[in-house]
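Quick log. Single chain, no ligands specified.
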Amino acid sequence: MHDTFLQEVVQINFLPVCIIIFMIIFLVFNNRYEHELTRLFNPVLLMLLGLMAVDNADYFAFSSGQNGLVHTFIQFLGYNLRIFILVKSILIALRNSEKKYLKILLYIPAGINLIITFMALFVDNIFRYNEEGELVRGPLGYTPHTILLLYSLFMYVYSVHIWIQHKRCCEATIISIMVTLAIVGTFCEMIFGLWGILIGVIAMAITFYYLCIHIEFFKFDILTGAMNRASFYADINTIKSNDKVGIISIDLNDLKLINDTKGHLEGDQAIKIMAHTIYSSIDSRSKLYRMGGDEFAVICKDMTDTDIKLLVDRIRIRMNESNYKFAIGYSMWDGREEILDVFARADEAMYSNKKELKGSEQ
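-> predicted structure:
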């Protein structure tokens, strides 16, 4: 009996433990480069380890016939750890959101679940274990599953949002798959009385989610949050001959003067303000890239020449409201020439505008 129990414990835990070990290695070695990302995932990893311990305790209690208050308390811990892992995963997805109230509101369903499942320790109409070791649910016994579905629905909706609005396609896909597998794992454990499925699914999903965000880290410029030069060249290779595409080239004027007279920190601040101004002017049809130094490019898809002229004017108006000067130019693609030639023409138009601006200052 003892050997059989040990074999089953090893079988249940071996794969999740391997995944968690790799996850710990990723976090430790990558902490110096992505400290903020590591900080976000550390609580999830700790709760995941806690859930593994709770699941093993649940399996031991079931196998040894412990069906009293201790087993109910273990179930209480398991339900809430699952919910709070999901909440922390949502907060990771919301890491760039400025809506602080939304992050606070997210804890309310989890708090309700915590209170209701805690009451199971004192009353029998939520969930309890009978003398045969079977889990008996009362009217509120499915509260954790209802809360899980509520959070899952939120994550599905938010994944669509970040796909459409922010073009975070990889992350949106990972979130959708992660939630779907978590739901399937939960109901497989509940319906078939299995152990270890959900912990394995969560460990794998969290690891892949971390790697997805880690990969995204190398697509963006650290200073401004705009996509970087490598992303620009990767994206122009995906443009098809029937796409309506225009490229805008933008350059900050007098950056060297700012660096020499006010310091490089002020120069970095000027670049950040420029990026924020451009980003606030574009919509989901356009992507902003930092090409290097004070040079930016915008790839505009599904936009006519008139649309891009309006966008350029909008950027000019907002940049003129700042304390910095810039030059801007754009070019449209006819679908036949090399797309890099379009970028070169946009650059020429930008430098022409830069000369005009300098000439008007003299």
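The CA atoms of residues 257 and 263 lie 9 Å apart.
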